[in-house]
Amino acid sequence: MIQPLLQRKLNPGEEEKHERMSRSRDRNKRSHSRQSAKRPAALQPPTLVQSATEFRHFLAYVSGQPWLALDTESDSLFRYTPRVCLIQVTVPDTTPDKAWSGNPDDVVDFLIDPLQVSDLTGVGKVLADDSSEVILHAAENDILTLQRDFGFRIRRLYDTQLGARILGRKGVGLANVLQEEFGVASDKRMQRTNWGQRPLSSKQLSYAQIDTHYLPALRQRQISALKEDGRWEEAQDAFRMLETIRYNEPEPRTVWQMKQIRSVDEKDLGVLQAVWDWRESVSKQLDRPPFKVLGESALLALAQRRPQTQASLEDIPQLGAWQKERFGGELLAAVRKGELQAPPRRPSPARKAEALRTAAGRRQFDQLRRWRTETATARGVDPDIVFSNDTLLRIAACQPASVDDLLEIPTVSPWKAQAYGQALLSVLMTGRKR
Question: Do 108 and 102 form a contact (C-beta atoms < 8 A)?
Fold first, then answer.
């Protein structure tokens, strides 16, 4: 199984960075965004699915199709517990006597509103039908969110971003790919809008439609290139591995995940824990992302300055006027509580992987990484397309002696075991002799 990147709330430490980047992008791209929000002239408006009747019509149209393109939009920037707010589906515009032409505009686009349609069971059945290929771009997050919210599983998928990376392409974000392949500009500013609000704006609808509209044509182009470059079998193997991803509930958020936690004095940890706990409680109660209640810099300032009165809150510039007015009394109470409680014990450092606990193990892991870098450079791909660090650690820990042994490692796929197995075993053998 691939180690998944769990879709979740923003990690602590990412929060203020996200705010700064968002403000900067808004300033620098405002004029560009106004242009890119326009729907390309050839696109027909998408079909909105907002009722049980519309959903039945949608299912009748998409069931049995040879492929469908899929994407989702969530409201993770606006809720403590995110949810899927829109599901985009694109299918071929065909008739019994007319096959799909390959033209990117010979498709039908649907936008399903899961906040209006209560029973989406039919979508799960379509995705689980392995006679239909599901096309996504950067599939992992969508796979996990669909499992999390609906229990949907995709049986047969094609990831256009992964396909591009196996081809050695750079700039594989969807906006870049659409611009380069089809001359279409996508307003990425829409990613940060509230997809849980209704009605959705025309700009949101246009952005959502574009996210799947061109994926079928992109897939067709990639398949030709992958076959021409002798990488088609590798790509199929990688897609099958993606299908094994499973959603797991994320670990609870803790104060130890803060980016600057290592620089916090021991004497301030008690107050920091108290204001952290307060923020988590309020964020859950309001169902807002924690960084929209109070930023990390404000938490640190409260822990270090320990204000005792409403007036002393004015000396903390990291707090906005509305935060002082709305939460001032609660923050002061949290500070007092933190001063009275013992500071939390720092967690023990995470135990290193078995392969890194000895000098020989560390040396062997470094040798594997050097081999991976050389192999990736020769192929013109990023190193993780060959193997991730996590997989190299597992290989070093398991010490496989044969290709069959390599296949016992869950993150080593059949294609990679055959393609890289003998080279890997040679590196391991050389490391054992030293």
Answer: no
